[in-house]
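Postdoc handover notes: sequence design on the structure in folder B. Input tokens:
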């Protein structure tokens, strides 16, 4: 006999499946194969070189800005102390630096998709006059003058002469190891935990209104969309159009992952929203008659206060609270001290 209760649970099962769940909480779609594939002959040494470079301000013209200056490990490698990220000479950029995790699965990088390969990603901020303001050639020259960097390159590539290609590949390989899969969501998927009633309610809201652009398990499809944000007159940032030159790409920005939102505020490409409630309020109040909106956003949400709260409860399940504190990702103080001692002894 088909009862009302059976119908409700059947509908809820459909919602779970659409959000990437099967019955019992199993994720229907596991992490896809990584798009970035690198297999260096000395992976540990290459990763250490990339990690050291990531935290070293030597990559900037005045040695004041490192990659980590805008991508703090304690904020899931995002920039949280300013809406817009800063560069050398306290210059203010146009965008908020996004978090860096699960990047080996991403087909594009930067909010406008300017970079197509992880090994080339670091070159963009290094060469940008308002970020690091350097040249690849000068960075290599500076690295070549330091004994411990020559030792690092020898360990990584069996060649003590630093190179731009080797430097970029090492940084890309380090970034490719920043995997984040330890959220409460992942625990539920692995049958180690269960959602609360509020989280399940939030999942229903998420499945109905958010999952089309933010499908699990990556919680983004990494497409470029218009999300109804009014253009900032000061920044004049036209998003994807800056890369393609196509009018149809004006104000399209890459859809970010919703993982680790607890650590990566402020939100949006220009950091205009400080809280998740502000973000949800924006989407809840969209002018859905606006033909410039991406099609997925043209269905009104009309969320109640409770639904918005429940949605936040679910989104918080996507935080990998161990990720920001993983020692293998942090500043390599111990390794650097050891390398400098070795280099100092060899130079005597």
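Designed sequence:
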């Amino acid at each position: 006999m088909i009862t009302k209760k059976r119908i409700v649970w059947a509908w809820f099962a459909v919602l779970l499946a659409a959000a990437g769940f099967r019955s019992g909480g199993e994720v229907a779609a596991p992490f896809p194969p990584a798009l970035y594939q690198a297999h260096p002959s000395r992976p540990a040494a290459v990763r250490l070189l990339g990690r050291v470079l990531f935290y070293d301000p030597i990559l900037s013209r005045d040695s004041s800005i490192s990659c980590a200056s805008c991508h703090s490990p304690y904020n899931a490698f995002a920039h949280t102390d300013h809406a817009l990220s800063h560069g050398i000479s306290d210059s203010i950029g146009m965008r908020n630096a996004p978090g860096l995790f699960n990047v080996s699965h991403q087909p594009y990088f930067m909010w406008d998709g300017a970079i197509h390969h992880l090994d080339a990603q670091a070159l963009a901020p290094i060469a940008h006059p308002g970020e690091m303001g350097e040249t690849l050639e000068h960075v290599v020259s500076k690295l070549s003058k330091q004994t411990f960097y020559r030792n690092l390159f020898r360990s990584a590539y069996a060649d003590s002469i630093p190179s731009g290609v080797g430097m970029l590949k090492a940084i890309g390989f380090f970034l490719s190891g920043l995997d984040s899969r330890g959220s409460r969501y992942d625990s539920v998927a692995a049958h180690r935990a269960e959602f609360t009633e509020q989280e399940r309610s939030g999942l229903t809201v998420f499945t109905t209104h958010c999952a089309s652009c933010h499908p699990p398990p990556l919680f983004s499809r990494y497409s470029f969309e218009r999300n109804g944000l009014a253009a900032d007159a000061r920044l004049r940032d036209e998003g994807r159009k800056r890369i393609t030159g196509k009018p149809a790409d004006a104000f399209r920005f890459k859809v970010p992952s919703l993982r680790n939102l607890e650590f990566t505020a402020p939100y949006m490409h220009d950091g205009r929203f400080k809280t998740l409630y502000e973000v949800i309020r924006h989407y809840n109040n969209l002018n859905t008659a606006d033909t410039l909106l991406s099609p997925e956003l043209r269905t009104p949400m009309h969320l109640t206060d409770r639904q918005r709260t429940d949605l936040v409860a679910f989104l918080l399940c996507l935080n990998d609270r161990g990720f920001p504190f993983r020692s293998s990702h942090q500043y390599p103080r111990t390794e650097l001290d050891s390398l400098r001692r070795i280099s100092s002894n060899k130079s005597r």
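Context for whoever picks this up: Residues 107 and 214 are 15 Å apart (CA to CA). Don't rerun without checking with the PI first.
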